[in-house]
Amino acid sequence: IVVTGSDDHLWKMWALPDGNIIMTGEGHTDWLSGCCFHPRLVQTLVTSSGDTTVQIWDFSKRGCILTLEGHARTVWHCSWHSCGDFVASASMDNTSKIWDVNSERCRYTMCGHKDSVNSVEFLPFSNTVLTSSADKTLSLWDAR
């Protein structure tokens, strides 16, 4: 399975190797910048967008089940914690956020980069978060 985004604000899920479209999602109001499958729930996906939001999608419900708002500018990247209860986002607003999917709120905003945060990843099975920035730095964060 491959997921792609496009300028028409849609994402498409493709089956490999035949290349057939399995599903198309519509919900973001601007271009898509990233996507990541849930670590355990194969029917769940997170996406990030130029519209400043992060969205959680459920394929069994055929749509967006949660929109996370709080960044001031484009969200470049998103990733799941290995437990599947948290999502991290990286934004052009120079911050990263840790979102609690169950409570549907931001748990922690990581400030300190001097330029756009371009990617964010959780160290598997830990509370450590790694961010990379256009300010030419990497930062390690304790998300507890």
Automatic annotation (TrEMBL):
Cross-referenced SMART domains: WD40
Keyword Repeat appears in the UniProt entry: yes
Gene Ontology cellular-component annotations: axonemal central apparatus
Origin: domain of life: Eukaryota
Keyword field: Repeat, WD repeat
Keyword Repeat: yes
One of the GO BP terms on file: axoneme assembly
WD repeat windows: 25-67, 68-109, 110-144
Pfam families: WD40
Name of this chain's protein: Sperm-associated antigen 16 protein
Species this chain originates from: Eudyptes sclateri (Erect-crested penguin)
